[in-house]
């Protein structure tokens, strides 16, 4: 078509230029093709993800199955309702702290202070409530606020001053451990009464079978409602969405797992309050990460900090807030660990706690390189480490061997993460 030289292209010209050439195949979202092909499409998509290194939670799920199968075959006590119920309580403290580590790892950073911060906050509660008579709820809030403040200090030096997170938190690990010793004083140990709120948070168990089953039903119902709402929202936006059949299938799988867990818990004593609180926090924080603008900014900063900065994201705010979240979760985890042993002492937050929480986050599937992970990684990773420790204790294996095996599992998780990233880069997906 002939154009006048003095004018720009007309709307008709634009339309003509955008029309596909004869014989051209229009671009179609691959996710739509997968769902149109039914079962075959999903199988092909799964194979493609495996070949391109998108392993997701598959390695850690397989690890749990293998660990439970091995220990269950060696000693039937491991898979007993009592041991699994005890395990669900024992992983809560470590899992809570690991959730904070997940947030930091999503930025591609590390926090080496969470162990000492957890011990410090447990000591603050014990001294304020037990020795000084402060109201237990107020003392609990002060202790948690202390953890948040400590994390904010770390974030300030990292985000504003420019000190590497490794150095800031390593210094914090030493400093907060010293402050904990100062807070505890010459006695070194403060016993927490069994009727204290901290002890009850850990030890309370709802013996009624209805408690576990109702919790499972509510969880499944919320998952179904959220999935349907998300599909409706995506359909309205004309972007790929999960069909109802897929949502129903996923809900059935979740329901089977949830009610199986409820059944096992009811075979012993019932639903532990500590486990319930842990799951509620996981759901809330998962919503923050996956469904809010703030959560998307965390992934953006961890995936490409320069790109996030150019997109107008306040990188300093995200970094400071994430370290504050890590400090808060360290405080909550420390409170539960103190409730477990009913005391705060000079050894609180020490030993192999720091290594266990970092290992839990990484083994659960959170990448050390930032930008990829989930708060559910903390639950899965804590379950792996807790299962290894529980099984070895039943078998009478020494702590030295436990440390070596846990270290080997951590190394294997990092190797899988590294190989996965390399494979994704080769496939052009990273």
From TrEMBL:
The chain crosses the membrane at residues 55-75, 87-107, 114-131, 137-158, 165-185, 205-226, 247-265, 271-289, 317-341, 353-371, 378-395, 401-419. CDD domains: TM_PBP1_transp_AraH_like (cd06579). One of its GO terms (molecular function) is transmembrane transporter activity. It is a multi-pass membrane protein. The keyword Transmembrane applies. It is found in: Cell membrane. GO terms for cellular component: plasma membrane. Keywords: Cell inner membrane, Cell membrane, Membrane, Sugar transport, Transmembrane, Transmembrane helix, Transport. Coiled coil: none annotated. Residues 1-22 are annotated as: Disordered. Its main location: membrane. Part of the binding-protein-dependent transport system for D-xylose. Probably responsible for the translocation of the substrate across the membrane. This is Xylose transport system permease protein XylH. The lineage of its organism: Bacteria, Bacillati, Actinomycetota, Actinomycetes, Kitasatosporales.
